[in-house]
Amino acid sequence: MQFKLMTPNRQVFSGEVDLVGGRTEEGSFSLLSRHIPAVMELEPATLKVEGEEGTKRFAVHGGFVFKERDDTVRVLTREARDFEEIDPRELGARIDELEERLEEMDEEEEGAEYEKVRSELERARLNMGLVGNE
Asked: What pLDDT shows up at residue 86?
């Protein structure tokens, strides 16, 4: 199957795969070649793809899976990171830094910047939770 994992800013991964697995609100799923067309809403979770080059895992922050009739699978998500790119120690230090920064900020005075830092902290914590569960 042809597989593409995309965010609004970049194509995270593209290639031939044999299996795509992840999690929706209804539970876990696996897509194989010749699976019927489907559209599924992803939960923030680990997305796994298996192919000739082995297994790759990605931390995805929700999104949608589109399985097309022509054996193309596309995943569109607001954020995705390859597990190989995530260093838990570095991520932990970043979380600590963001928490400190947020404590020093005034939400009312620094509304937009406060929300930006809070959002980044939320994404970092989600990535840490996903990597920590593997």
From this structure: 84
